[in-house]
Amino acid sequence: MKLNINGTEHAFDGDPEMPLLWFVRDVLGLKGTKFGCGAAQCGACTMHVDGVAIRSCITPASSIEGQEVTTIEGISGKVADAVRAAWVELDVPQCGYCQSGQIMTAVELLTDNPNPSDTDVTAAMDGNLCRCNTYHRIQAGVQKAAQIMGGE
Questions:
Q1: Fewer CB within 10 Å: C terminus or N terminus of the chain?
Q2: Interior CA angle at 100 toward 97 and 101, to 5°?
Q3: Residue 5 and residue 99: Cα distance in Å, rounded?
Q4: Please, are residues 23 and 12 in contact by the beta-carbon 8 Å criterion?
Q5: What's the CA gap between 101 and 32, in Å, rounded?
Q6: Residue range 59-65: average pLDDT?
């Protein structure tokens, strides 16, 4: 099978049931996306498939053939730039382990809704757990990114 990861096609003849997370981390060596729970409950493994956030720890590699996968290493564009700038400006991460998943989810939210309410942010980020409990900084980071995108 051929898998498109961050705009590059990769041939893969391994186990088609291998989770996408392991293909990206172990086969391609892209370590930015993290393994958290292995049960799609924490969001640490969040990637985009055709722009939609998915949990890569439970997604078989074969299920994404023909689609475009974006990892934290490959995310780009106005929304991603705004989220990165907000994260740096507000010093959002603490330990940082969950941040790739948080950022991927924030980018999906702001792509779909560039002016989210606090309720929208809370709902969108709800499935991403942070063991440092920095939810207030993540919430502020998403709102700051929205402001940056709006030119404020």
A1: C
A2: 95
A3: 20
A4: yes
A5: 9
A6: 96
